[in-house]
Design a protein that fits this description.
The chain has 292 residues and is of the alpha/beta class. 43% of the residues lie in helices and 22% in strands. The protein contains 14 helices and 11 strands. The strands form 3 sheets. The protein has a 7-stranded mixed beta sheet with strand order 7-6-5-8-9-11-10.
């Protein structure tokens, strides 16, 4: 039995955070944003209203992230599933996809391999493939935690046909023979948004509800935040032989980090070139890197 129309719900003063109410209505009622203006007589059932109310309470009172309530997030115009085990992709990281798209457009090839390291729910590698399917022949997404990797697999299943050239691997950064073999392909683009927030900065400045709800290891790794990047760069440098060194030079990396961290890594890893290609915050950069 329907109990009220969309128009009456949206105008109800009991829901002062209208943008959140609208997103919950769209999710649970399977409506598009424009429907909120064109389908005002849409009838909302008792069951749907209960889910909307529960979601609104979870957000406004329990301070649960909206993405964990509706189990999804929009990233570069694509809907991805997330779970409390995964980092919620930030809109700012879309600048990395822009940078990769521009790089692909500037380097004509229809045989690019994409490696997404520490993929979480799979947004980087799958968004790059979604926007550049004519240029990409293989995508490999890696993740240390198998449960998290299952979320990435679920996203691929929802977004692409079963024969899409997307594969998954449980691995610690680049420490796997299959990844070493994968990196022999040229051209190969590596994308990674590794944890880079320094421990003290996270403790002093991060919202308490982010600390409570999202996995800390998605943000922090080491005192200065650079430890995982160091591990990954060391793994690249350990690839032995002149042939492997030449192939390393053909791997292009797109990374996210703080401005001063770029300078730190430049000094510690003179074998690599780091170019800041996108700025979305006064102190955060999208960086393109390669071996000299």
């Amino acid at each position: 039995m329907s109990i009220l129309t969309l128009e009456k719900l949206l105008s109800n003063s009991s829901y002062p955070q209208k943008s959140i109410l609208e997103k919950l209505v769209c999710h649970y009622c399977e409506l598009e944003k424009e429907d909120l203006f064109t389908k005002l007589d849409y009838e909302i059932s008792t069951d749907l209203l209960a889910m909307i109310k529960d979601g609104y309470h979870a957000y406004t009172v329990d301070k649960k992230p909206l993405e964990y309530i509706i189990w999804s997030v929009r990233f570069t115009g694509i809907s991805f599933k997330v779970s409390p085990k995964t980092l919620i992709p930030r809109p700012e990281t879309e600048y990395m996809i822009q940078a990769v798209n521009e790089h692909i457009a500037d380097h004509s090839s229809n045989d690019i391999h994409i490696l997404d390291v520490w993929t979480w729910c799979g947004v980087l590698g799958q968004a790059v493939y979604f926007h550049n399917q004519a240029s990409i022949t293989q995508v490999l997404l890696t993740e240390l935690d198998n449960d998290t990797l299952e979320v990435a697999k679920s996203n691929a299943k929802s977004l692409f046909p079963s024969d899409a050239p997307i594969s998954f691997l449980q691995a610690s950064l680049l420490d796997h023979e299959d990844i070493n073999n994968y990196l022999t392909h040229s051209p190969c683009i590596l994308v990674a948004n590794l944890p880079y927030i320094p421990e003290q900065l996270f403790d002093d400045n991060t919202d308490v509800w982010i600390k409570k709800r999202e996995p800390k290891m998605a943000f922090v790794w080491g005192e200065d935040g650079c430890d995982l990047y160091r591990v990954m760069f060391d793994q690249l440098l350990k690839r032995n032989g002149e042939t492997e060194k030449q192939r390393n030079r053909e791997i292009v990396m797109f990374l996210e980090m703080m401005t001063w961290q770029v300078d730190v890594l430049r000094k510690e890893y003179p074998a690599f070139e780091f170019e800041e290609v996108k700025t979305f915050h006064f102190n955060i950069r999208i960086v393109r890197g390669w071996m000299k």
